[in-house]
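Moderator note: this is an archived Q&A kept for reference. The question asked for a predicted structure of one protein chain; the sequence and the answer are reproduced below.
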Amino acid sequence: MSYSNLDLINQVDSVPYTPQPVDAYYEFRSHDSKAVLGYILPEVAKKLNYPDTFTVTGPTANQRGAVTINSSLDSAEKRSEAIAKVLEDLKENKTFQVLQGWRNELYTVYNPTHVPYFLIERAGSGLFGIVTYGVHLVGYQPATETSPLKIWVPRRSYTKATYPGMLDNTIAGGIGYPCGVHETAIKEAYEEAGLDEEFMEKNLRPAGVVTYFHQVNNHFFDSEASSRSTTTKDEATYQPEVEFIYDVIMAGDVKPRPVDGEVAEFYLMDVETVKQELAKGSFKYNCALVMIDFFIRHGILTYENEPDFVNIAQRCHRVLEFPMK
């Protein structure tokens, strides 16, 4: 099968824009019920029987169900501690397979915007459908008179729990607490590709953000790709995500190298080869979007050569109606 650029965008930005039935998901609500923090699928909500932490109300004919943080949890510290205990219990009881990929890394949930509301174990974030944040860096050799633009493309380790063996962006990683965006980019560059801080500070170029709203079970649940995720059909999740994008100029003899075991190997690909791999579905879903965004920003993908250009450009920057970082 050959994937168009719009096919790839549809895979990552897969939550419908049109209103969904009231029983499609539960709202994950703040302790004062003023904010919706995320979306929880019914199969997950039904297993959150922790009355000291959550109040779960089912949907009615004209109102969505809700998982509401209890009003007694009126500080970030209380909420973080209570939700951590819930996730630890769910992990111990093997309620959700995704929690077996426990990372001992915390993500920050915000409410209101910019204000930390609680911390949550990374492996459990998808169960609550909260916004998560990451950095994606595209390392490339600029075009010269004798050579076309080339991009450093890694292959994910074949032993990774999620999307093993798929192609990725040069450097990528989630923004864990208490790290900042720039700090994470520098850290991940060394850990994943052996690029030191001095080099990165000279060659790192902020290039905006991409945003999308992904539903894990919307694609790839087949025999071909059953190993791509630790999440199964009965515990599918919503994943609204914000990725901070950087370009890294890697001219001359600068080469990334695997360091922490996250990457099997790096390839230096010209644009046509990257396009071919995108069309084959070789890239992890969100990394395909980042690569398409790179093509747009560098004038490789244009209105003249892509019939779905406007739709694609819009879909790389979805408005997420949740409190944000």
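Archived answer notes: Residues 29 and 36 are 5 Å apart (CA to CA).
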